[in-house]
Amino acid sequence: MPSPLLLLAQIAIILFCARVLGRAMRLIGQPKVVGEMVAGLMLGPSLLGWIAPSVSAALFPVASLGFLNALSQIGLLFFMFLVGLELDAKLIRGRGHAVLVASHASIVAPFFLGVCLALYLYPRLSDDSVTFAGFALFIGAAMSVTAFPVLARILQERGLTKTRLGAVAIACAAVDDVSAWCILAAVVLIVRSAEATIPIPLMVGGSLLFVLVMLTVVRRALSRLQVTYERWGGKLSQDRIAAVVFLVLASGWITERLGVHAVFGAFLAGAVMPKGEAFVREFRERFEDVMVVLFLPIFFAFTGLRTSVALIGGDMWLYMVLILIVAVAGKMAGCALAARATGMEWREAWALGTLMNTRGLMAFVILNVGYDIGVISPALFAMMVLMALATTFMTTPMLEWVYPERVRAAFDAPAKPELVAAAGGGR
Amino acid sequence: MRPVLWYIVMVGVPVAAMLGILRLGERLEPPRAAHGQYSIAFDSAGSGHCLSALVADGDSRLNIAQSGPKLDMTFGPVELFGTIDGDRIYAAAPTQENALLRAASCLTVDTVAVSAALPARGATDTHLVGNFLFPGCATCPGVPFRGTRLPDRERGR
After folding, report:
1. Which residue of A68, A300, A357, B29 has the lowest C-beta tally within 10 Å?
2. CA nearest A375 in B: which residue?
């Protein structure tokens, strides 16, 4: 068992690096989360392990990583809960066909191209313990995801939340979010069904039953939480917070047992929470600080410790470039073409495509799930992590290029206030 | 009507095509899977001194990480890089990492390598059988070993 002192030192160093790099990224106009992702990579074998292997081995010995993993998994569960909590059906409802076509096209285009690319990558980066379907579906899922919280933050920082583009982007990202997690749940079920410890009908039937119970019984029970919250003058007791924490953990446990993955249970627990504005804000404030400051940097560091850029050698850089091109072209062009086809101007359509191309930590979540269940090889994991980082990094400068301030005024029109309000917060 | 048409073109058609591609991909043959952790048992009669550096800390587990045909192996203090070709595995350690080996076992050794074979495709056996090789070291002709794959702690590689 690793020493508690070592764990404390690890956490302190992770937090320090995340804060410093987060601030540094803010100086160059990037969201803080990009700096935190980079900090995680730097602490792993890609930098620290490369320039100072003995320091890396002393600070992050393999035997100690189980604790960091446990902390990062708990953090991930509560992050997914917050993602579900922020998800508001109002964002999607009444947005019309344009949003539906644009958002689904922005999922399907990169997914399709990812599956096509998998034909080339499968014999080169996988092995016969993984089926082609599992491999291809995971590549597609990682390429098609959009980081809703990062996108909301970029819109907020660029002053775009009150524009038509901002409202459509948020609605598209919300549809993407729900669709992506549903797709991923299905993909994990398909992959795990090959080596299921429980019968497949029980996995599928149990998962559907769980979703049904959450959407009906649990949602109704939780609505009382908001009623009492309002009755008590907008205060949440610690007992009620404990009840929600219990719900998140229990949901995660159930979906993990059903073979889907704990993150889906946590996401669903957030999604069925009442959506009153003050209620959501209260919960977000209670959870977000500890999440953002403590758990997410640990998650990024754990991802970084799994990522070895040194594995990408020789012709693998060609695969890396292909992955990046396919991811960007699929997401950006797919979304832009669909938005243009449904009536947006080209500038706005490309700006929407650029925004939807930000993958951030959502891709990290998918990649870690894929790595955990053995579908993604170490080299492919490193490539996909770099792809996720690059697409997140490029969003802000590309948006500035595609949709500069002088052009914005011509397009800007006030959007519905409820859409704007729901777009706030997040990372 | 127009959005429905666009939906069919931009969503329906690619989804249908994707199903075809998934079927096509089933015909591809990826490399054999060798990744995992193996417990190594040596047949070291007469060449125990060659292994003294490798198993100095008593850890006789061989870890193999795999990305397609490329392998990254760790055994004790040595990291070996190699490939898998059909059922055959060959991996070698970069020379500069073998100061330990030189000091402990053979003054002239250039490198350490592993040559091994997987069971035939479809076999339920999960053994790895091969030799540890010490090219350039006349007193270490190669040490036969048998590796037994240990159950995964988690499914990650």
Report:
1. B29
2. B156
| Residue A424 CB burial class (10 angstroms; 0-12, 13-18, ≥19) | middle
* Host H or E run for residue A223: helix A219-231
Q: Is A128 on the interface with B (CB under 8 A)?
A: yes
What is the ipTM metric for this complex? 0.84
Could you give the CA distance from residue B103 to residue B74 in angstroms, rounded to a whole number? 19
CA distance A297 to chain B (A): 21
B5 touches chain A (CB under 8 A): no
Within 139-178 of A, beta carbons closer than 8 Å to B belong to 140
d(CA A229, CA A241): 11
Report the distance separating Cα A308 and Cα A385, nearest Å: 10
Mean pLDDT confidence for A210-224: 92
Give how far A84 is from chain B: nearest CA, Å: 25
Q: For tokens 């950006």, name the residue.
A: A332
Contacts of A124 (CB under 8 A, 6+ apart): A319, B68, B69
Give the distance from residue A380's alpha carbon to the nearest chain B alpha carbon, in angstroms: 7
Record: contact A379-B32, CB cut-off 8 A: no
Burial of A132 (0-12, 13-18, 19+ CB in 10 A): buried
More confident position, A230 or A110:
A110
Q: Is residue B123 a contact partner of residue B32, using CB atoms and an 8 Å limit?
A: no
Which comes out higher in pLDDT, residue A417 or A368? A368
Q: What is the mean pLDDT of chain A?
A: 85
Q: Do A311 and B15 touch (CB under 8 A)?
A: no
B102: contact with A, CB 8 A cutoff: no
Judged by a CB distance cut-off of 8 A, whether residue B15 touches chain A is yes
Tell me which of A149 and A416 has the higher pLDDT: A149
What amino acid is encoded at B43 in this protein?
Answer: D
Q: For residues A321-338, give the mean pLDDT.
A: 92
What angle, rounded to 10 degrees, do the helices at A378-402 and A360-372 form?
A: 170
Please check whether residue B30 is in contact with residue B47, taking contact to mean a CB–CB distance below 8 angstroms. Answer: no
| Number of Cα atoms under 13 Å in the Cβ half of residue B24 | 13
Query: What pLDDT, in 10s, does the model give residues B42-68?
Result: 876 656 667 766 665 566 888 999 999
A342 with B72: Cβ contact below 8 A: no
CA distance B7 to chain A (A): 6
**How far, in whole angstroms, is CA A377 from its chain's centroid?**
20
State the pTM of this model. Answer: 0.84
